[in-house]
Amino acid sequence: MEKMKREKRVLSEAAELFDLPADLVAGLPHVEVMGSSYFYMERHRGILSYSGEEIDINGEGMIVRVYGKGLELVSMTGDALRIQGTIARVEWVS
């Protein structure tokens, strides 16, 4: 536990020193929502559940849940994914 806290502190300090985005250095997921039609996420850990109304995505220490209608996984690589449809809301679940 102490090691993880120290690593996070070092990463945060490095991000500040080199003027880098803290989420990038810490390996946290990066999420973009464009209007109510497109969802994009980098640094995911895979899909946990999938339907046209709800998609659960494994993030780093959290689940990102996308709700909507006609949701479709348009593309997915080992690092990024795109969802299209009518997005009603996005939740972060611990």
Helix-strand layout with pairing:
Blueprint: H1 2-17, H2 22-26, E1 30-34, E2 38-42, E3 47-50, E4 54-58, E5 63-76, E6 80-93
Antiparallel strand pairs: 1-2, 2-6, 3-4, 4-5, 5-6
Can you tell me about this structure?
Helices cover 22% and strands 50% of the residues. A hairpin with a 3-residue loop joins β5 and β6. By secondary structure, the chain is of the alpha+beta class. It contains two helices and six strands. It is elongated, with a radius of gyration of 15 Å. It has a six-stranded antiparallel β-sheet, with no helix packed on it. The mean pLDDT is 87.
Number of strands: 6
Rg estimate, integer Å: 15 Å
Figure out the total of helices: 2
Portion of residues within helices: 10-25%
**Strand arrangement across the biggest beta sheet:** 1-2-6-5-4-3
> Structural class of the secondary structure composition?
alpha+beta
Summarize the structure.
The chain has 94 residues and is of the alpha+beta class.
